[in-house]
Amino acid sequence: MLKKNKIFNLIILTLFANLIFIFFASKPQLLADNGTNKNSDDQKQILLSKKDQIINPHNYKYIVKPSNKICGSGNLSLIAFVTTSIKKFQERQLIRQTWANQTLFPSIRTVFILGKSKYYKINNDLVKENAIYQDIVQEDFIDSYTNLTIKTIAGFKWVSKYCSNARYTLKIDDNVVVNTPELLKFFDRMEKNHKQFTKHSYFGYYDPESLADRKKIVLSKNLKEKIQGPFHLSPAYLVSTDLSKRFYKMSFYVKPSIFEDVYVGMLAQKLRTNFIMLNKRYFHNWDNSLQQAMKLTKKNKRYYFALCKSTQDFKAIWNKFESLSLLN
Ligand SMILES: *[C@@H]1O[C@H](CO)[C@@H](O)[C@H](O)[C@H]1NC(C)=O
Ligand SMILES: *[C@@H]1O[C@H](CO)[C@@H](O)[C@H](O)[C@H]1NC(C)=O
Ligand SMILES: *[C@@H]1O[C@H](CO)[C@@H](O)[C@H](O)[C@H]1NC(C)=O
Ligand SMILES: *[C@@H]1O[C@H](CO)[C@@H](O)[C@H](O)[C@H]1NC(C)=O
Prior knowledge:
It is a single-pass type II membrane protein. The protein is of the alpha/beta class.
């Protein structure tokens, strides 16, 4: 495993304060794309080697989905897909009312990604919820913690098909608050200074300990999994939408891991994409997110994501983000 780590170089650049770049470097041999998308711009984007075979086709059917037109045809800044579970209606409501509020932030769209329940009544509630909010994407795999990787692929798939006019894709859990006003400013800065670069990049939280931690879990639960790194952590990460299309296509060729983030790390490595570490823009420890957020000031408010341990914290942190945005 140590050798594996040598295939990637850890290069530290200070492009601007607090951004660190990690470049994945593996050597692809052949340019080919045997996927279903005919768009020639996409064709040149996924690099496969001779031994790559389709081993993970994502053939699930939609049970519920919003109108194909919710993203419209104009430029959007962001499409967020929230991985959530069926019973978390309150959490979804909170998200709709706060960071994802489309009245406040017309250039973003949000959908919730779910699998199916065994119970008819529960699935039917989702049909009703979607009729009102037009933001539920439900596929026919079983909704369970062990299927999170499938859920993420479902998110990338939906974005590829129905929202490719959004500049960035955000994969996010339902217990993370987004500081939307600051995130939109971050996008503007990236567009202005690093447009081409960001097209091939994704952004997230990186913890060097996580590789060893996951290996421990695999050992203790006696799972048949080969964990390879590096990978970012799962709760919230940003991907250029151009790249999220390639993540989806590449997922056909990579065997799922039970860990969603390990899996996306593997896709990223195969795609030789840039990972940009944004650790300093996160409140990643939910035990003190609230405390930390309360200390933010007009001059120090560049935090984009806060993990929350309760819906109370979620609301309070959002209120703080919102009040700071009004101080301009
Ligand atoms: C893709 O198609 C080419 C020919 O068009 C073929 O040689 C290659 O083996 C295929 N690759 C996969 C992964 O199916
Ligand atoms: C939308 O984005 C494309 C690509 O960045 C750009 O060429 C076009 O001018 C934009 N359109 C609008 C209406 O902003
Ligand atoms: C979004 O914000 C607007 C303006 O503050 C508010 O009127 C509306 O109720 C909010 N939408 C949701 C779904 O809460
Ligand atoms: C999803 O998870 C359930 C329960 O863990 C499992 O039985 C099922 O095989 C998984 N996969 C799919 C595609 O539903």
